[in-house]
Design goal:
mainly alpha; 8 helices; globular; transmembrane; ABC-2 type transport system permease protein; transmembrane helix; membrane
């Protein structure tokens, strides 16, 4: 049943949005191919690539048939499948870009891998969590817009912080600033929201238990 449902969701997914996101993610890596690449623009390109890929995943989460079709598959399982189908290729695309950029700019530009991957995880999962929460209350394509909206709010809010107070500063190899220590907390919060968004609804729990 799960395999059949995943196959159906893969066919129904709006892959054109994912294709546009992949193209944009590739274009955003232009700072890495400059004659003298700089650390901050390169990292911005990697963060934005994760953000646009995550936003594309979010557009696959609204269940357009939820209000018209009854299915014996629990909602939580359907939603996690809706996430997994586009998220797996999105992670693979970003990982490929990351490795290519890392090899292109080294040894002139380096950074701690763990910190940048952590940032990318937050940037990519934030729109997924926001879209998943919106999908609990809307079963139309507008629910996917919650992802980019959440990204915009988070970005604007963090741009007011500068220098060592900014979470966007290039990471140090030895120690993180207080603002940079917020990234693990942000990842935990995003995962908690995602788990809450994909939990079974009360009505579904009563119908399909």
């Amino acid at each position: 049943m799960t395999r059949l449902l995943a196959s159906h969701m893969a066919r129904a997914m709006p892959w054109w949005t994912f294709a546009v996101a992949v193209l944009l993610a590739v274009v955003l890596q232009l700072p890495a191919v400059q004659s003298e690449p700089r650390l901050l623009p390169v990292l911005i390109g990697l963060r934005l690539a994760a953000a646009v890929l995550g936003a594309a995943v979010g557009f696959a989460l609204p269940d357009l048939m939820a209000s018209t079709v009854v299915t014996p598959v629990a909602r939580w399982r359907r939603q996690w499948l809706r996430i997994a189908v586009p998220l797996v290729p999105a992670v693979l695309v970003w990982a490929g870009l990351y490795l290519a950029v890392r090899q292109t700019v080294a040894p002139a530009v380096t950074w701690p891998d763990g910190f940048v991957i952590l940032q990318a995880a937050v940037c990519g999962l934030l729109p997924v969590a926001a879209a998943a929460m919106a999908a609990r209350y809307r079963d139309d394509s507008l629910g996917g817009l919650a992802g980019p909206m959440a990204q915009g709010v988070a970005l604007i809010g963090t741009l007011f912080f500068v220098e060592r107070s900014s979470p966007w500063q290039p990471p140090a190899t030895t120690d993180w600033t207080t603002a940079q220590r917020c990234w693990p907390v942000a990842l935990v919060l995003v995962v908690v929201v995602l788990l809450a968004a994909n939990r079974e609804t009360f009505r579904a729990a009563r119908t399909f238990r």
